Every structure is written in structure tokens, then in C-alpha cells.
């Protein structure tokens, strides 16, 4: 079975790399590995579990002179178990991922934590 290494990046610089098989979500693999991530609905509707893609394989989001990272498109990097209703297409193109329903298609790095959640705002379904 295909597995991908997913590195979770928390504020403050701590990281944890977990193995995610092709039939499980990032959240499921994180829980199996003992990594604590926030979640609520587990259906892609509440946005609690959102993370942001910062690298795919060896590719990293590049920062410009102001330190702002150019987004990596998350659309091609994940398949979803069900429609990610809480994200717009443009948010997905900016790298945002709902970890409760997302299955990675490549090794990748994902920023997690309250800052990512604050960037996205509230779910349109809340
Ligand atoms: S836990 Fe609600 S969208 Fe993931």
C-alpha cells in the first residue's frame, strides 16, 4: 500500500513526521501516531482541522522579500474523502487543507495550529 510522509509543523518550530497510507486521512494518521490536532465535525464542514500546505516533495513554499510565502496549490496534492465544503476553491488553491478528510498523494509538509485557522476565518456553514 502506498504511504506518504507528512510533516506537521506547529508554531514555534516543532515538527512531527507521520506516515499516511493512501486510504486514511491526515487526521486519522496523526491520531494513530499520537499527534494532537484539533477537529470537530470530521466531515469537512466546520474548518476546525484546517492546515496549510508548505511543501510538496522537495518543493517548498518560497518566501518573497517581505517574508510572505507564495502559496502552494493544495488541489493536486490531496484527494478528499468527501467534498471539502468548508473551503472555497481559491482557499484550496492557496494551500489550505481540511485534514479530517484529506488523503495525501505525495510526501508533503503542512503548517498546523491556530494561526492557520485564523487566516481562513469562519466556516460558511457555521
Ligand atoms: S473537523 Fe470539521 S472540517 Fe475537519
UniProtKB/TrEMBL annotation:
Gene3D superfamilies: 3.10.20.30. Residues 4-116 form the 2Fe-2S ferredoxin-type domain. Keywords: 2Fe-2S, Electron transport, Iron, Iron-sulfur, Metal-binding, Transport. Its cofactor is [2Fe-2S] cluster. GO terms for molecular function: 2 iron, 2 sulfur cluster binding; metal ion binding. It holds the Pfam family Fer2. Belongs to the 2Fe2S plant-type ferredoxin family. PANTHER family: FERREDOXIN, FERREDOXIN-2, CHLOROPLASTIC. This is 2Fe-2S iron-sulfur cluster binding domain-containing protein. It comes from Natrinema halophilum.
